[in-house]
Amino acid sequence: MGVRLLHTADWQLGKAFNNFGPDAGARLRQARIEAVRRIAAIATERQVDAVLVAGDVFDQQIASIEVITGCLGAMGDFPGDWVLLPGNHDAAEEASVWERVRLRLPEGRQIHLATDANPVVLADGRLAVLPAPLLRRHESSDLTACWDNSPTPPGAYRVGLAHGSVQGILPEAAEKHNPIAADRAGAAQLDYLALGDWHGTLEAGDRAWYSGTPEPDGFKENDSGNVLLIEIDRPGAAPRVEPIPTGQYRWLAWERRITSGGDIEQLNRELEAQRPTQLRVVRLRLDGTLALPDAQILRERLDWWRGQFAVLRVEDERIQVSVGDTNFTVLQPPGYVAKAVADLQSRAEAGEAGAAEALQILYQLCVEAGAGA
Questions:
Q1: Are residue 187 and residue 335 in the same domain, yes or no?
Q2: What is the DSSP string of 211-263?
Q3: Of 130, 89, 126, which Cα lies nearest the Cα of 112?
Q4: pLDDT, averaged across the chain
Q5: Element containing residue 128 per DSSP (H, E)
Q6: 276 upstream amide cis, omega within 30 of 0
Q7: 283 in a structural domain
Q8: How far apart (Å, rounded) are the C-alpha atoms in residues 78 and 198?
Q9: What pLDDT sits at residue 137?
Q10: CATH number of the domain that residue 237 is part of
Q11: Whether residues 346 and 268 fall in one domain
């Protein structure tokens, strides 16, 4: 009889997203709980034997009670076996988040906290999950090495569950801590190795995969936002791996050069095309030189789009604004304002620090006051 598994990791529940503000942060945190709910629904629909979570269920040890109970509640749509592995963010150290999770496990649920290296035997003895929980944030040795000699029930599928860096697969900077040998699946005679820590979906060698985070949480183009359905027909057979999309938000990192009104309208069209905008997180880096009226138009467009996107973070420090040829007379400013404009224009032409910025502010105030057509 074959085995069917759902492999996921890096839920990072409770992640703060502080740099996006309180409202957007709250929405993004809730999206991670909703991703767990979708995983449970997929597990039920696909009738899997178990859901394996390869570490970093929680983003930090001080996860709130609301985050813990929210997680356990979201898992409720799949009444079968769950195996939760501590990762580097939620290592099974003394006074860890797992102690509070254990106290709140719903009665009658099959939620296994893999806080030690003992095999978790499931599916009436047909499946043996070999966990390698992190007991502290960073390990220098390969905790999966013990699997090579770990006994499991005769004829059972051997599946490894680990959180760390497969050597030679990930970028060098990601391989500094929690190493995993590239040949571990073969050396330990695994039918499959379920990995966490890398937030994108990635094949990491023979029978080994990173599932990635089920809800994107960064701007890397690494194929995040999936879970993996794993089907193995018999012990020793090659696993079939099917990525299933689960992500709700899409994260976009754009760089655009803006030098004219036409460029602004092109950017406006690109933003308009990103629907549903309320499910988009956008980082927009701009450079170029604009005349002051065009800079005002750009500011107005971006102010509009900030209210439409889940997050629109604009980095426009490299936009230079040309104020020397700006015709303020079309705005018909009152006399005292016109005098201030003339004075600031003279100072800006002389290169006085702050004069150009003051002109921009004054221009914006005139536009907002309805002085111009």
A1: no
A2: ---SS--SS--S--SEEEEEEESSTTSPPEEEEEE----EEEEEEEE--SHHH
A3: 130
A4: 91
A5: strand 127-132
A6: yes
A7: yes
A8: 25
A9: 94
A10: 3.60.21.10
A11: yes
Amino acid residing at 72: L
CA distance 212 to 56: 11
- 81 and 146 within one domain: yes
Four-residue CA torsion sign, 155, 160, 166, 167: negative
Q: Is 168 helix (H, G, I), strand (E, B) or coil?
A: coil
Task: Read off the DSSP letter of residue 73.
Answer: H
**Average pLDDT over every residue of 49-56:** 98
Q: Is residue 60 part of a domain?
A: yes
373, part of any domain: no
In this structure, are 202 and 66 located in the same domain? Answer: yes
Chain position carrying tokens 């183009």: 221
- Host H or E run for residue 3: strand 3-8
Q: Locate 201 and state its tokens.
A: 């979906």
Structure tokens that stand for 5 in this block: 């598994």
Are 264 and 227 members of one domain? no
Within this chain, do residues 79 and 149 fall inside the same structural domain, yes or no?
Answer: yes
Q: Residue 364 is encoded by which pair of tokens?
A: 């914006």
Indicate the residue among 245, 280, 314 that finishes a domain: 245
Percentage of the chain exceeding pLDDT 90? 78
Domain-terminating residue out of 245, 272, 296: 245
Tokens standing for residue 61: 């040890």
pLDDT at 44: 98
**Are 57 and 172 in a shared domain?**
yes
Query: pTM for the complete prediction?
Result: 0.88
Side-chain-side CA neighbours of 300 within 13 Å: the count stands at: 13
Q: Is 134 helix (H, G, I), strand (E, B) or coil?
A: coil
- DSSP state letters, 271-326: HHTS-SGGGEEEEEEEEEEEEHHHHHHHHHHHHHHHTTSSEEEEEEEEEEEE-TT-
What's the domain range around 273? Answer: 250-368
What is the tally of structural domains in the chain? 2
Residue 100 has pLDDT above 80, yes or no: yes
CA distances from 6 to 34, 52, 75, 206 (A): 17, 6, 13, 18
Same domain, 281 and 194: no
